[in-house]
Amino acid sequence: MPSNTRPAGAPAPPLIDWYRRTARDLPWRRAEFHSHYGAWGTLVSEFMLQQTPVTRVIPHLEAWLERWPTPAALASATPAEVVQQWANLGYPRRALWLHRAAVEITDRHGGVVPRDVEALLRLSGIGDYTARAVAVFSYGDRHPVVDTNTRRVLARAVLGQAHPGSPSRRDLDLMDSLLPEADSESAVFNAAAMELGATVCTARSPRCESCPLLDTCAWVAAGRPDTGDTRRRQAAFEGSDRQARGAVLRVLREASPRSVLLDSVIPDWADPLQRDRAIDSLIADGLAEADGELLSLPR
Questions:
Q1: Is 46 a catalytic residue?
Q2: Which of 270, 296, 266, 268 is nearest to 283 (CA)?
Q3: Residue of 132, 140, 142 whose CA lies nearest to 3
């Protein structure tokens, strides 16, 4: 959809009003957070929030920024310290990517998180969403920001679908067509769409009666039809390679800075081949380091 074509019943005004009345009080939304940590705080929070619930992120974010309040501070840390501090947030490769991004920001940008989306995209571990989130929520620039929650709101309110399809460039184009012209209002609208998807327009039990877009929602107007769900399902965590990797990392974090004997790493794991596969994959990802018969966090 062309960015200069605004769909009928554009949801910006009611959604912005709703957000200003009801938005959750989250650390990265507070003025003092931005004045203290700037774009670095936004970048760290966005890394941590990927596929991780808000309630788990908050204490880890506060501890992380207290220890490493600037990119330069994190850049001076060792990979082992970074993985240790990441603790049980999950998807620990994010910790290494964030560390590499901090080094790149320090070396290439004088320790200042860049504002330009293309410059942000050239940093390790940063994709379309994170780059635009930093540019919008920290610097106040006008860009469409689309996460899973936003895509669900767009699918229902604008396209009349029960669930969004696979992510595509069309999501950004559609969101761009809905953004208010003013930079400040467009930033609020981006945040409001995410908030609506996270708290009201949820995947399994949407609370349509509480939605500020109820009167204009295309899906509600169509009778809330089941239009199918083509989203890829995440494999169960129990018994997965992810669970095995997490168990290995837990042993290494508890032992750090010491190494542990390979044979003593989760020796009673139900599937020995899965255990070995988990160790090998952690080494390949740079999250663990082997030295003969010893295993440790990366030095």
A1: yes
A2: 296
A3: 142
Question: pLDDT by residue (tens digit) across 52-61?
Answer: 999 999 999 9
**CB burial string 137-149: b at 16+ within 10 A, e below:** bbbebbbbbbbeb
pLDDT digits (tens, 9 = 90+) for 208-222: 999 999 999 999 999
Query: Is a pLDDT exceeding 60 seen at residue 123?
Result: yes
**Tally: H helices and E strands in the chain:** 14, 3
State the DSSP code for 7.
Answer: P
Which pLDDT does position 8 carry in this prediction?
44
Nearest CA-CA partner of 12 in 177, 147, 133: 177
Mean pLDDT, to the nearest integer, of 268-278? 91
Which positions ≥6 away from 157 have C-beta within 8 Å? 11, 201, 213, 216, 217, 218, 219
Q: Which of 299, 233, 291 is nearest to 96 (CA)?
A: 299
- Catalytic residue, from 46, 81, 104, 195: name it: 46
What pTM did the predictor assign?
0.85
Q: Could you tell me if 1 and 177 are in contact, meaning their C-beta atoms sit under 8 angstroms apart?
A: yes
